[in-house]
Design a protein that fits this description.
- The complex is a heterodimer of chains A (212) and B (10).
- Chain A has 212 residues and is an all-alpha fold.
- Chain A contains eight helices and two strands.
- In chain A, strands 1-2 form a two-stranded antiparallel sheet.
- The N and C termini of chain A lie far apart (41 Å).
- Classes of the chains: A mainly alpha (212), B little secondary structure (10).
Chain lengths: 212, 10
C-alpha cells in the first residue's frame, strides 16, 4: 500500500459519498446518469466476487463491502425512491455500445481464462467507460450542478492518483498490471476535458458548470 | 495459463 493508492481509494469513497448524499438530501437525482451508476454497480459486482474467496487485508475487504453497498444504495435511490426525478430522457447513452465491446475484449485479452479472471477483466474495462453516460448527459443538458462536478472531480482525482500509484509500484516493486494500467490511462483521459471545464468554470465560482 | 491471479487493488 502507498500514499497514492490510499488517497486514491479515499477520493473514490468521497466521490461516491458526495453523490449519495446529494441525491439523498436533495431527494432528487436530476442531472445524474442512472446508467453510469448501474455500470459502476456492475463494475463492483464483477470485480469483488473474490470477496469471499481471496482475503487480501481487512482494509481491502471493508472497502469492497462499502463500495458495493453504496453503489447499490445509489442505484436504488435513482431507480426506485426518487425515480420521479430521474431524467431518463437526457440519460440516453446506449450502454450496449459499451457492454458488448467490453465483454468481447475481456474474453480476448485477459490474464487467465477462468470465470473469475474474465469477470475481473470485464470490470476493469467497464470501469474505464462507465462514466461516459454521465459525461454524455452533461453535454446533452449543457450544464451540471456544482455538486455533480465535485463528484466527477473526486472520481477523476481517484483515477489520477491510481496512475501515480502504478508509477510508484513499478519503481518500488517492479509491479506492472498491464490490463489495469492501460484501462486506467484510457479512463483518466476521459476526465481531461471535464477537468479543464472544472478548473476554468466551477472553481471560478460560477457555481453551475455550463458548457459552451 | 489458467492460474489464479491475485488482485490486491480495489
Amino acid at each position: 500500500m502507498n500514499i497514492f493508492r490510499l488517497s486514491g481509494d479515499v477520493c473514490h469513497l468521497v466521490a461516491i459519498i458526495i453523490l449519495f448524499l446529494k441525491i439523498w438530501r436533495s431527494k432528487s437525482c436530476a442531472g445524474i446518469s442512472g446508467k453510469s451508476q448501474l455500470l459502476f454497480a456492475l463494475v463492483f459486482t464483477t470485480r469483488y466476487l473474490d470477496l469471499f474467496t481471496a482475503f487480501i487485508s481487512i482494509y481491502n475487504t471493508v472497502m469492497k463491502v462499502v463500495f458495493l453497498v453504496l453503489a447499490y444504495a445509489t442505484v436504488s435511490l435513482i431507480y426506485f425512491r426518487f425515480r420521479k426525478s430521474y431524467d431518463s430522457e437526457s440519460d440516453s447513452f446506449r450502454v450496449e455500445f459499451l457492454l458488448v465491446p467490453v465483454a468481447g475484449l475481456s474474453f480476448l485479452e485477459n490474464y487467465s481464462f477462468t470465470p473469475l479472471e474474465i469477470l475481473w477483466t470485464f470490470s476493469i474495462y467497464l470501469e474505464s467507460v462507465a462514466i461516459l453516460p454521465q459525461l454524455f448527459m452533461i453535454t446533452k443538458t449543457g450544464e451540471a450542478e456544482s455538486i455533480t462536478t465535485h463528484y466527477l472531480f473526486f472520481l477523476g482525482l481517484y483515477r489520477t492518483l491510481y496512475l501515480a500509484n502504478w508509477v510508484w509500484r513499478y519503481h518500488e516493486e517492479g509491479f506492472f498490471d498491464q490490463i489495469a494500467v492501460v484501462s486506467g490511462v484510457v479512463q483518466t483521459i476521459f476526465y481531461c476535458d471535464f477537468f479543464y471545464l472544472y478548473f476554468t468554470r466551477v472553481l471560478r465560482g460560477s457555481g453551475k458548470m455550463t458548457l459552451p | 495459463a489458467d492460474e489464479e491471479v491475485a488482485h490486491d487493488e480495489l
